[in-house]
Amino acid sequence: MTGSSWAPAAPDPTTCSEVWLPPKPTAAVLDAARRLGRVTLAPVLAAFATLLLSESRRRGLDRLAFLARDGHLLMTVTALVAAGASITSPQLLYVHLTRRSTALAAAGHLQAPELSLAAGVRAGAATWGSALAYYGIDGDAAGELLASIGAKETSLLPHGSQLAGLIEHDHWQSQVRSLARQRRDLLAAYLRQSRLADGSSAAIVDIGWRATIQHNLMRLAATINDAPCPAGLYLGLWADDPGAIPTGLDCTGLITDLRRRRRLDEAGAWYVACLLEAICRADEGTTVGYRCAGNTVEPILAGPGPARSAESRSQEVVAQVRAGVIEGIAERHFLTSANNLQLRSDAQRRLLRLAFFPDAGEIVVASHLVHTEGHAPDWSSPLVLDDRPNPLLTPRRWLAGLASPWRGGYVMATGRGAAHLHRGLESLLIMAPPGLRQSIRRFALGLATSRHRLIRPRR
C-alpha cells in the first residue's frame, strides 16, 4: 500500500502501540468510494431508515436520539428518507453518549472483572492506562488512581489474583466511588438536558452491536429515579455469545438481530461492522465525559492524538462514500413499493455479499479506511491488512491476516477460493456453541504471530 506507514506511538516496548496512517487516495480510489456508497450502502442505509421510521410510528415515538459518533450518518440518511417519502418524522437528535462516558457511572466501581472486560477490547497491549481510559478515566484522575497502588499507565495490566489484590487498596476504592458519583450526576444531568429522562417517547439509535450504552443507561436508571432507560433501535444486534445482550433491555436490531434467527444471512451486518463504523463515524473525538458550563452540561471530546490523525487522514475517502450514499438515496429506486420484510431481506442479502465477496473496488476503498478504539489514542489499524499472502504457499502468514478488522475483505483479497471456504466455515461456526466458536478462532489466530492482533470490540 504505497503511501501508508506504520509508526510506533511510544518507545516503550511494553505498550505495543502503533498507528497506521492511511495512504493518500488516487482518483480511482475516490471513484470506487463513491460507487460503494451509491450502489452498495445506500440501499442498506435507506432500508434501515425506513424500518426505523416505521418502528417509530408503531411505538408512538416523538424523539430519536442518534448516538455519537456512529449515529452521525444514520441521522443524515433518516432525515433524507423521511423528506423524500414525505413521512412525518420524529424529532432527530444527535447526543453524545458513548461507552466511555457511561461505563463508570453505570458500574459505580472498578473491580477486577470490570478492568478485565476493558482489557478484552484490544488495541495493542492491555495497559493500566488503556483499561482506565475504557471507563473515561485519564489525565490527572488516572495518575492519582495509579499512584495509590504504585502502578504506571504504560505498565501491562496484570491478571487474575494479582490484579484483584492490587485494587483492593482502600484509597483506590474510595477514589473510584467518588469519580463514579461525579460521573453519575453529570450523566443524569446530560440525559435530562437531552430530554432522554422525561418519559418513554424517545429511543436511542445506533449501529449496535451489544447495546452496551443502553445497558449502561439501564443500570444508571436503577440508581437515579429521574433517568429512565430509553428504548434502543439499532441497525444490528449481534454477539458470539447470545447472552451478551441483556434480556431486560427494550432493544431491536432492525436489519440484523440474533434473536430472530442465528444464521449467516441474518448476521451479514456483523461481519462488516468495522467497515460500517468507519463510514458512519463523525469526524470528531469520542466523548469521554461531561462538564458543567454555566447552566448546561456539555460533552468532553477526546483531543488530538495519533489515532484521531489517522481517522482524519481517511476522511477524504469517507466523504466520497457518504456522497455516494446521498446520491443513491436521491435515486430511491430501491424503496419503491417494498414492504418492510422485503427491505430487510434485501439489505441482509447486500450485506452478506459485501461481507464475504466484496469486489476489488470495495476492497481498495476499505484499504484506505481505519479502525480505531476510543480508549486507545495511540493505536489504529487498516480495515484490511496490507500483507496478503497466498493461503496455500504461506499459510502461517495468511492466518496472521485474519486479524484484519474486516476479515472477509482480507480473505477475498487473497483469493475467491479462500472466500468460499471462509463463508462455509462461518456458516458452520455460527450454529456452534459460543465457547467452541471462540476456541476455533483463537486457535487460528494463535498459529501465527502478528503485530496487528485485534479482538472484536464489545459494543
Blueprint (SSEs and pairs):
Layout: E1 5-8, E2 18-21, H1 27-59, E3 63-67, H2 71-84, E4 91-95, H3 99-107, H4 112-119, H5 128-134, H6 139-147, H7 160-166, H8 170-193, E5 202-206, H9 212-221, E6 231-237, E7 251-257, H10 268-271, H11 273-280, E8 287-293, E9 296-301, H12 306-313, H13 315-331, H14 340-356, H15 360-366, E10 370-371, E11 381-382, H16 395-400, H17 407-413, H18 416-429, H19 434-446
Put the structure in a nutshell:
Helix content is 48%, strand content 12%.
Q: Uncertain segments of ≥5 residues (pLDDT<50)?
A: 1-17, 448-459
Percentage of helical residues?
Answer: 40-55%
**Total beta strands:** 11
Structural class: alpha/beta
Overall mean pLDDT:
87
Looking at how many chains there are and whether they match, the oligomeric state comes to single chain
Strand percentage: 5-15%
Lateral arrangement of strands in the main beta sheet: 4-3-5-6-7
